[in-house]
């Protein structure tokens, strides 16, 4: 059975249509394909398993060995998701083919039987699919998967897409010229995701999987093997593995599944490959060192010194992966493993919260790339005393290995697990088809069956009935045993540890922690103090949009309510309040960042985070906190039976906040550790510095230094955040499956019971955010790889809801810009793997919007990026985009908004702040038309308004010791370093 959900622990159409000659199939006229399973036949994925069939899937197998699964699903409406999985990834490569599996993924998109050179992306865009999200592929150690989420589908569009996919998979054009063109793009991808993190990842793989194929086959490959690739060598890899016997197709969507099966049969049944299939290579087993004896012998260990990275320790128990019989009994055992790990992780988290020697620690079990079955323990020491942190983590685990858990501990975790599985059943009618399509692919990859949500819940209930402290202890001991123990320690200090000291520390006997377990403690919402005297509803009225109702309380709190059963089991809650970033002074950057990490963790009233966790046991609740430019927000996804308690928590946080030193210190530690890594790569510098400089060095956007963080006291933190929580309007939005009248009564006792809010100070309410003054290119330096750089160019546009309809048209122009820049930098120059142009148009403030183009590239390509971005911006102000360019931009946008507008959460986001600013409500009208309908003349006018005569603000991030080419400094942004 597929892994249990981890809710507990992203032919070119310019040809004449006659050349695309396909005859659309009508589902109602179709014979049942002969390849579909017969009634009573055991589907191929359930062979040898007693896991109950998910009856909504239909399975089939073609005579050539290709297997498939199809399923009808209408979420979102009008979409079909297709996955084509090839049983070949990087582990299938020979030593001279490193990176070929991933290179092939690229080449299939470059040219194939029905698609000319570079026509795949524009073709899918014309069909409404967004590149990178709706149209994508992935290569892993064990497979390559081609993915298409096709929106606004009909039988003709589906058939055309299946034909195009069949041409890509069955007949790619693997010529020398195509390989030579695509290799630089793959090398750009390798460079952009390389550097210190990739280096550490490779060193960790080589240690943790020593002696196995996984240790030496990085999916992206090596420069040497990629540069040596030819059409013939890649063709040889393709011929060996791209065969029908190695292919599984998954199709799920809003059409008849018999149609899906018919099209698979039509376009893949005559796929024939000469010769017998090649046997899969031996991936190898994790083996103990020669001469080792005793339980859990320590094998390979590595100390990885990287001055720019925070400390991180990983150790694991590794045993061979073996094919299993996917039975109910086997899955009950998997759930006991999950229960055992949740118990341990709860204890580790409690130790970290209480001021332990590590920032975080967690244990996980994984079957990795059909190479090993491992239990991995990862933690971050707070100081250079990693030995103490390791001993503390091991002592918590030692107690779990020595003594069975208490019934009270088990019941707490079992309640958490039950909520997740029961919620899946409740929500099964609104689970997305793309998720089901992925589930089948993942099940095939791990060689297990697939199951319905009801089966997950049934197996859980069966396990729960049989679970005892003794058999959980037995499962825990199995988890923490293996053929060999291996470890890596990442440290910024060269003299902090040696391989010998690591091995000795892991081999040392450790005593079970006597205080690792959490004392049984019963906490109930019924025992909590009231927020205040229940308030009074002073107004109820329709909100002019559908069935949305507006409710206002005497204390000024306003609520928007939409109750329906369109999405069973789902309730979205959002609370907007206060002034957001505008509420802070420019010298409070550290307090802003620490609030994101510590404010919620500090608890409320007399309750700390541990008590809040106990309150939430057996419930589906959330407590996300965000700081926007114009408001703060609490967010949660909950359900009908937990809505009242969710609203109490949110209101109590505003009415009775708690100020606790422990979470503040933990937030400081996390921020300090993160700060170390920013300077090691162009992406890190962008994350650290871009907003600060883009907003004219407004220090509210500054990433605080460790010294700034350390200077914040608990009293200062409290004194700054207290007024921020108490002032400004409150808007509560509740959209989903719940009882509206019961919710209003709960609001009366929670948010309606809060004291009347103080108004935002005038300077906060009118707060503005500026934009950097264009001038010389801002140059920042990173300490990472000498071949890595990044470049940013940005133009100010607008903000606020006043011209929100213009912003939607500008989104179309941004997509045109994005397509042109990708073509220039990736397809033609091979200079950047993923350049991107994005529009930011804040709606809760009146200033600050930008169109920003960004790319990671070689330092020598930075001038090319600025030149191409300038060229495109200038061309758009002179010559409007073609009708075809507009179709490639508007079709994906239109389909994206059609899909997301079918859900309650979409309307929640669109209507937020509309009780305070009615322009938000008015802006909802015409949304789909604004994104999908435009003219070349409208685009020309927008380009002239925002790009003409306005030099882009520029920022370049280059390696230390290098200088930026003078060609890039003609116009840009003046700013000083810090």
UniProtKB/TrEMBL annotation:
One of its GO terms (molecular function) is metal ion binding. Gene3D superfamilies: Metalloenzyme, LuxS/M16 peptidase-like. Residues 1-27 form the signal peptide. The keyword Signal applies. Residues 79-212 form the Peptidase M16 N-terminal domain. Residues 230-415, 715-890 form the Peptidase M16 C-terminal domain. SUPFAM superfamilies: LuxS/MPP-like metallohydrolase. Pfam families: Peptidase_M16, Peptidase_M16_C. Keywords: Hydrolase, Metalloprotease, Protease, Signal, Zinc. It comes from the Bacteria. Belongs to the peptidase M16 family. This is Zinc protease. It comes from Qipengyuania nanhaisediminis. The lineage of its organism: Bacteria, Pseudomonadati, Pseudomonadota, Alphaproteobacteria, Sphingomonadales.
